[in-house]
């Protein structure tokens, strides 16, 4: 570990000394934010995170995330939360086809408690119009963007009114199979709520179906979720998958990650071609 990385980690752990003083041993739990830790004390083991989702208590109460044990506010204003450790595993890509995944996602999207809390926090719905405006602004900041980027934004703009959905819900925003956990009692959890947003449920549904579910099983999976497959739903899901792919392609383009950017560009071209068929 180089000095810079070590100092960065020490800065993040600073403020968690109260756990160390109580005999807990901390180690990074991974993740993109670097704010999550595994805390051990003898045979006890908990998951600790700094500045986790502000509606973690609601998620815990509804059994969507592992049980919230306690919350503590530090002198610097940061909030530390501790949750039960899940003795289990992440879902595999094949596991995402299970009805229980669809049923859990439906439970989340139908939660009025989550939606009310999000609204009280001042979160406005992410609409297609806002997304298109954000992309145009982003492209203005890029010198000589690939023509496919503008072609994609024009596609998104062309259908933004057609895909508008008037009943937004709380979406998780990161349906990667690694964020789904199942414990030894076969209880399912959806973790890592840092990307949660109020939006069309098709934002979550599109990622799951396009990424993990065979096309010939879409209707059955959606039946478990609680809705029927329709052209309107397919259009919305496709639109949100396109915008997500464009977002990733722009990110990799700006960070000069050539291999990942090329893969996203290929995927983007395929999605746009699919829409013309």
Automatic annotation (TrEMBL):
Q: Pfam families from the xrefs? A: APH
Sections of the chain in a coiled coil? none
Using the record's annotation, list all stretches that form the Aminoglycoside phosphotransferase domain: 55-239
Name of the featured protein: Phosphotransferase
- Species the sequence originates in: Aliibacillus thermotolerans
């Amino acid at each position: 570990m180089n000095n810079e990385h070590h100092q960065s980690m020490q800065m993040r752990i600073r403020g968690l000394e109260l756990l160390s003083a109580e005999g807990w041993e901390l180690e990074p739990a991974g993740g993109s934010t670097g704010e999550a830790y595994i805390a051990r004390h003898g045979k006890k083991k908990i998951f600790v995170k700094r500045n986790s989702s502000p509606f973690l208590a609601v998620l815990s109460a509804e059994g969507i995330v592992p049980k919230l044990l306690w919350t503590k506010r530090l002198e610097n204003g940061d909030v530390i939360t501790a949750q039960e450790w899940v003795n289990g595993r992440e879902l595999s890509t094949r596991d995402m086809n299970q009805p229980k995944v669809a049923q859990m996602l439906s439970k989340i999207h139908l939660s009025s408690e989550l939606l009310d809390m999000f609204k009280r926090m001042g979160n406005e719905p992410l609409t297609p119009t806002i997304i298109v405006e954000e992309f145009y602004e982003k492209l203005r900041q890029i010198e000589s963007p690939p023509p496919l980027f503008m072609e994609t934004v024009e596609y998104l703009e062309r259908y933004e009114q057609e895909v508008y959905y008037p009943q937004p819900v709380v979406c998780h925003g990161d349906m990667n199979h690694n964020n789904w956990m199942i414990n030894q009692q076969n209880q399912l959890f959806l973790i890592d709520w840092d990307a949660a947003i109020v939006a069309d449920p098709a934002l979550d549904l599109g990622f799951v179906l396009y990424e993990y579910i065979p096309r010939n099983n879409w209707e059955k999976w959606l039946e478990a979720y609680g809705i029927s497959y329709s052209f309107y739903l397919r259009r919305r899901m496709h639109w949100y998958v396109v915008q997500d792919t464009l977002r990733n392609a722009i990110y990799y383009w700006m960070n000069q990650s050539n291999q990942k950017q090329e893969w996203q560009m290929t995927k983007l071209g395929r999605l746009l071609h699919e829409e013309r068929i």
